[in-house]
Design a protein that fits this description.
The structure is a single chain. By secondary structure, the chain is mostly helical. It is built from four helices and no strands. It has one domain. α2 crosses α4 and α3 runs antiparallel to α4. The radius of gyration is 11 Å and the shape is globular. The chain binds heme C. The site of heme C (HEC) has 14 residues, from α3.
Length: about 70
């Protein structure tokens, strides 16, 4: 996944862990593939705010979700 997306492996790992630990607290975590890349860009900042996450964590989540989309479009 890191190779295909060009993203840093540690960032992807961090983003994945954050999605699992935070994004399923209020609702089922959404699959990366069910939302368009454009919509993820819109949704993640609001949801990261909901989850009380820092800007850097928000970026890691978005990077992870978009990378995962490339693997399973
Ligand atoms: C504090 C509770 C809370 C947390 C934490 C949370 N969400 Fe949400 N989420 C909501 C609520 C409430 C809605 C429905 C209302 C809305 O769209 O704002 C929602 C809706 C969504 C939707 C659908 C949006 C749409 O417009 O259809 C997506 C996708 C989503 N969340 C992703 C995430 C992701 C990714 C994270 C982790 C960064 C996350 N959520 C964390 C409360 C939360």
């Amino acid at each position: 996944m890191a190779q295909k997306s060009g993203a840093n492996l540690a960032t992807l790992d961090h983003g994945h862990a954050l999605v699992l630990s935070h994004c399923g607290r209020c609702h089922e975590p959404q699959m990366p593939s069910t939302i368009s890349a454009a919509d993820w860009h819109t949704v993640v900042p609001g949801m990261a705010w909901n989850a009380g996450l820092a800007k850097a964590d928000e970026k890691a989540i978005l990077t992870y979700l978009l990378a995962a989309k490339k693997i399973a479009p």
